């Protein structure tokens, strides 16, 4: 169908550590569970309410899968871009079931770590700047699989582990901007 869009953007916290599987052909598949929460004040009682939605995320992209396997742990805050996909499967009792997931395909999607490395684990040479970790050179300074990626702002693949900072649009080369955006 021409003129339609299937795009999902999630900002949330991981509900558990990533589950990594390998196919028979050696491709990596990573399953994530991401929680998004909405809070509001109840008009009648005046008390604070919260609703949490759980999202299944499947990463088929090898590079993003490697990042997820190495750096994501339960509780980490992430930004994800993918598409919604429903698949049909048969359970052990022969009943047909449907599952809707956010999928990050081999040549699409984005994954950005939004919080600092809480566990004190080695972050593999990638720096954490003002509470967010970025990988690659996407349009948001995050790791995506769109080669060339938008307006810049991230690291190119040639200096990913060097610790140097990349400038965006008209940003100074040392990226010394303090532009915290509240989400």
TrEMBL record:
<keyword id="KW-0235">DNA replication</keyword>
<comment type="function">
    <text>Plays an important role in DNA replication, recombination and repair. Binds to ssDNA and to an array of partner proteins to recruit them to their sites of action during DNA metabolism.</text>
</comment>
<feature type="compositionally biased region" description="Acidic residues">
    <location>
        <begin position="173"/>
        <end position="183"/>
    </location>
</feature>
<dbReference type="InterPro" id="IPR000424">
    <property type="entry name" value="Primosome_PriB/ssb"/>
</dbReference>
<dbReference type="InterPro" id="IPR011344">
    <property type="entry name" value="ssDNA-bd"/>
</dbReference>
<dbReference type="InterPro" id="IPR012340">
    <property type="entry name" value="NA-bd_OB-fold"/>
</dbReference>
<keyword id="KW-0238">DNA-binding</keyword>
<protein>
    <recommendedName>
        <fullName>Single-stranded DNA-binding protein</fullName>
    </recommendedName>
</protein>
<dbReference type="Pfam" id="PF00436">
    <property type="entry name" value="SSB"/>
</dbReference>
<dbReference type="GO" id="GO:0003697">
    <property type="term" value="F:single-stranded DNA binding"/>
</dbReference>
<dbReference type="GO" id="GO:0009295">
    <property type="term" value="C:nucleoid"/>
</dbReference>
<feature type="short sequence motif" description="Important for interaction with partner proteins">
    <location>
        <begin position="178"/>
        <end position="183"/>
    </location>
</feature>
<dbReference type="GO" id="GO:0006281">
    <property type="term" value="P:DNA repair"/>
</dbReference>
<keyword id="KW-0233">DNA recombination</keyword>
<keyword id="KW-0234">DNA repair</keyword>
<feature type="compositionally biased region" description="Gly residues">
    <location>
        <begin position="134"/>
        <end position="155"/>
    </location>
</feature>
<dbReference type="GO" id="GO:0006260">
    <property type="term" value="P:DNA replication"/>
</dbReference>
<keyword id="KW-0227">DNA damage</keyword>
<feature type="DNA-binding region">
    <location>
        <begin position="54"/>
        <end position="60"/>
    </location>
</feature>
<comment type="subunit">
    <text>Homotetramer.</text>
</comment>
<feature type="region of interest" description="Disordered">
    <location>
        <begin position="115"/>
        <end position="183"/>
    </location>
</feature>
<dbReference type="GO" id="GO:0006310">
    <property type="term" value="P:DNA recombination"/>
</dbReference>
